[in-house]
Amino acid sequence: MSIGKFRSVTFVLLFDLGSEAAAATAVIMNRCSASIARKVSPIEFKVDRPFFFFIRETKQDLVLFHGKYVSPPAAS
């Protein structure tokens, strides 16, 4: 399977006494055979300290989403 389309919508409303925000994300998956699928080598990404991340649209050089990773969730 591969990702065919990905859409994320976010809004933020600011008021005198506070704010309200919401987000929704949709992903449309495509079926594909092994002969069509492009092989992607895994990348090792060691998360051992806080970092900022950005999702960018490269054609128009727009930041679509940004966030901050602080620590891993507690093990259950």
What does this protein structure show overall?
The protein is mainly beta and 76 residues long. The protein has one domain. 0% of the residues lie in helices and 55% in strands. The protein contains no helices and four strands. The protein has strands spanning 2-15, 18-30, 51-57, 62-69. The protein has a two-stranded antiparallel sheet with strand order 1-2. The radius of gyration is 18 Å and the shape is extended. The mean pLDDT is 76.
Topology:
Blueprint (H helix, E strand, L loop, with lengths): L1 E14 L2 E13 L20 E7 L4 E8 L7
Antiparallel strand pairs: 1-2, 3-4
Protein name: Serpin domain-containing protein
InterPro entries: Serpin_CS (IPR023795), Serpin_dom (IPR023796), Serpin_sf (IPR036186), Serpin_sf_2 (IPR042185)
Keywords: Signal
